[in-house]
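The instructor's notes for this session suggest beginning with a concrete chain rather than abstract definitions. Hand out the sequence below and ask the class to guess, before any prediction is shown, which regions might be ordered.
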Amino acid sequence: MAIRWAFAYPASLEPDGVGVMVTFRDLTGAITCGDTRAEALAEAPDCAEAALEFLLRDGDAPPPSDPLPGEVVVPLPLRMAAKIALIRSARANGIGPGELARRMKCDPKEAQRLLDPDYASKIDRLAKAVQAAGGPALELHAREVA
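After discussion, reveal the predicted structure:
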């Protein structure tokens, strides 16, 4: 059975008197804004990423809820989606940095960096690490956005 994880979070856009404010109901405290709707939406992925980095350091990232009427769906940056997939796979399978390093035949410091949500790992290494941690093969599917 294929594992399917969603890496996009619903967000609300509201005028705030100066511009447009973006909030994420699944990511408490994640708030950003822009002078226009387009600017606010351009800032939203980085805001979600920063909130998730914080949440992952202290535990786990909540799965995204289904969007409610009026909400927009904000996709995560690709690297953060891969980090979440790796961290979830490693935790689900009891794989720590040492075991990940052994399975990947890499230095334990590299395995630790791959599991660090703040570290800018290369996407190809993350994809290999997810599989080494017992997770699914990562696939990229392109689609048009409105």
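Then share the key points. The longest strand covers residues 8-15. The radius of gyration is 16 Å.
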